[in-house]
Structure formats: structure tokens, C-alpha cells
Amino acid sequence: EEQLWVQRWQNMHSQPQQELSKLSYPPNTPRARAIWQHGIDRLSRTDVEQTIDAWLKLAQRDELIESDHNYARRQIGLHAAWQHNPVAAQWLDQLPPEASDPLVRQWRLLSTLRSQDWVAAERAIATLSPEELDENKWLYWKARILSKNGDPEAAREIFQELAKSRHYYGFLAADQIDYPYYMGHTALNASADDVHRLENRLSMITARELYHIGEMDTARSQWDWATRNLNEIELRAAAAIAYRWQWHDRAIITVTRAGHRDDLELRFPLLYQELIQTNANVRNLDVASIFGVIRQESAFVVDARSGAGALGLMQLMPQTARLEGRKHELELSSDRELFDPRKNITLGTGYLRTLLDRFGGNLVLATASYNAGPNRVQQWLPQGGTIDADVWVETIPFSETRNFVKNVLAFSAVYDYRLGKKPKRLRERMPPIHSAG
User: Fold this and answer.
1) Which residues make beta-bridge pairs with 18?
2) What is the pLDDT of residues 220-241, one digit of tens each?
């Protein structure tokens, strides 16, 4: 009997459409419910239309209860939203309020934005909780919806408030009302006594010595241990110490822990500036955007290594780096060479140029491709027509890529400021997104 259920589950995993369409056992026992729900989830990841067909047959079974129907509606609706299928809102709208959660409410709204149905978007945003509507993201979209639906004054009030902050949505809001970007640089306040007292602790001396002899993994572990119980004042002193030692990644992390995000000199260092400028000139790239990618990818950790195997300052996959290296006659004898800033930045900027060329110079698409791969980004393009870049970014299915693109764009504006330039507007970096054709 146990083997029978295992076989049923295996069959559902390998052939979900077929198994859902001909379920031969009652669907309302705990085991059966787990199996067919697995099938709904698995099939909807790849083919929403097939999932709908299979579910409509299964939904006729009398044994099913309302929560079963709500499960299917939720999975079909969410996967449709993530695949930019226009049926998403229809399925999510079928869920009663008690069966909705933040993910459902937010992707119901995002699916209406993707389809550019601003009237439906106004209905959808009204379902968000007060806590959700306090977030910068949803405040921005509330204002965008108000603006589109004929209430520009109410929209302007929200945009004005958002534009007082230094973040992605603050910059987007400033673009909507032609306000200057707020940078709000304030140097870190750490007293000389606090710095001296902390710097002479044995745990900090040990971290410094490990850092200076190049034992980076051990040095970072020691730093984390030495700062683990510090209060806010001590964390500020620690950030100042790391910055003075030119240990920039620890300075960035520690000042964030201290809750002081306004020292832009400390949080956005101008490291490898000459090397970045040289590569930007050679490849016709924007210097601030390169800085933005490095700041987001590695926070200037030279020997950064991701769980997926990406290496170095610009977090290059070794295979990608080797393919790019052949174009520039820069062969790699080992993966560890990607920890060399010169080679990493040369190959990383080359790859960024390749992606820009593939996507017609569109920085948003190139940045998303840098994180998720160009083939995925190609699949995320609109099937027809054009959509605004802020809508396209907000509806990227992968949260990691979505946040990556937002941060790179915002960091690029900050780096323009750090480089002594007038920050380039995000709207200039974010042209409309056209269909794959």
C-alpha cells in the first residue's frame, strides 16, 4: 500500500498534466491532496494553460472542498503572474479576502500594472493592508496609479514626500515631478576616544593583523566576532576604524549595522577608479553604472564567492569569464585569477558591454541579464507593444534580480554624485521596454 502511494506521487511528479486529468483515487484524503496539489504546483510552473485545463476537470469532483479550490486558484494565479500571463488577475480575483495574503494581493496588483490596466490597478491597490501601503514601493505605485487615473495633485503629494529620500523609489518619484535627487550626505560621527578605545582591544588588533597579512576569510570571521556585541556608538567607531584601515567591505557592512546610512563617502567608496574609468572608456560604458554593479555584486570584496560559483568584484561565473576573455585575448589559467581586480573588471565590463549590445543599449535589460542571464530576460520581454521600464522592473519574477536591478540603478545615481557629477536621471537610464520582436 505504501509503494502504491509512492508510485502515484512519482507519476504526478513526472507527468502532472496526465495524472491530474485522470485521477483514479479520491482527492480528499491527506495523501491524495498532497499529491494532486504537487501536480498543480509543478505543472503551473511551466504551463499555466495546461494547468487550467487539468484543474477544470479535477474541480468537478464533488469530494473537493473550498480550500482545495482556493489552493488551485492561488497557485495558478501566482504562476501566471510570474510568467506575465494575462489570466493572472482573473484567477487571483477569485480568491476570497480570507484566502488572500500579501503575496496574492501584491501580485494581483502587479499583474494589472503589467497589463497596463490602470483602472483595475486602482481596485487592486485598495486591497493592500495599511502596513503594506506604508512601504515606499507601494506608495510610489499608488501615486503612479493616481496620476494615470486623473488625480495628479494627490499623486504629486506622494511623489514629493518620496523624493525627500535617497533610494530607488525616491529617485523615481523625483523624476515624476522634476525634483532634484536627494543625497543627504552626512559624515559618520565617531569620537576619537571611542575609536582609540575600540581599536586597542585585542580582538580588533587580531582582526587588523589578519587583514594586513591577507588571511581574508579568517580576518572577516575575526572582525564579525570582535564586533558581534557592540552597541550603536561602538559600531560607528568600528566602521570608522575599518574605513581608516581601507577595509571597505567591513566598513560598509558595519556602518549599516550601526544604522547610519548617510555617510556616502564610507558606504560608496571610489575604489579602482582609474581601472574602472579606463575600461569604461574602452567599452563606451557609464562609469557610475560599473561602480553600481560592483557595489551591489560584491561591496568591493575582492575575493567574493557566491553560492552559485560567481567570483570576484563583478561576480563573474568562470565559464562566462573565459568566453569573454577570448574576445579580449585575456586567458585565465585558473578561476582564482578572477580575484585579480584588473582581470575581473576587464572581463566584467566586457560582459556588460556584450549584454548592452544584445539588448540595444538598454541598461535595465543588460543589468537584469547580468544577474539572471540573457535568455531569461528575453523570456520576460513583453509579447507585444511597449511597457514602462519601472513596470517591467517591478514585475521581474525573480526577487533577487528585481532587487539587483533596482539597487544598481539607485547606486549608479549615488556614484554620479560621488564622482562630482550631476546625477543622471533614472528615467534616462530606464527607456521603455519593447517586445521581443
Assistant:
1) none
2) 999 999 999 999 999 999 999 9
- The Cα–Cα gap between 56 and 64 comes to 12
Distance CA 215, CA 209 (A): 9
Q: Across-strand partners of 386?
A: 434
Out of 161, 234, 274, 297, the active site residue is 297
- Is pTM beyond 0.85? Reply is yes
DSSP 56-122: HHHTT-TT--HHHHHHHHHHHHHHHHHTT-TTHHHHHHTS-GGG--HHHHHHHHHHHHHTT-HHHHH
SS3 of 263, please?
coil
- Write the pLDDT tens digit of every residue in 61-79: 999 999 999 999 999 999 9
Confirm if 182 and 166 have CB atoms less than 8 A apart.
yes
Q: Which residues face 305 on adjacent strands?
A: 311
> Is residue 394 annotated as part of the catalytic site, yes or no?
no
Strand segments, DSSP code E, in 351-420 are 386-387
Q: Confirm if 313 and 302 have CB atoms less than 8 A apart.
A: yes
Cβ of 173: how many Cβ atoms within 10 Å?
A: 27
